Amino acid sequence: MMLVYKHVKNLFQSSKGIQDETLPFLTVFVDSNVYVSKGLYIPIINKATDEKKAKEFLSEAITHGAIAAIWPLELPLPQLVPNHFPVFFVQETLDALNRLVTYYVEKTNETSFEVQTKFVLPRTDNHNEKNCTYDSPVIAILKELENKLANSSQNKEEGGNSHA
Question: What is the pTM for the complete model shown?
Answer without folding.
Answer: 0.84
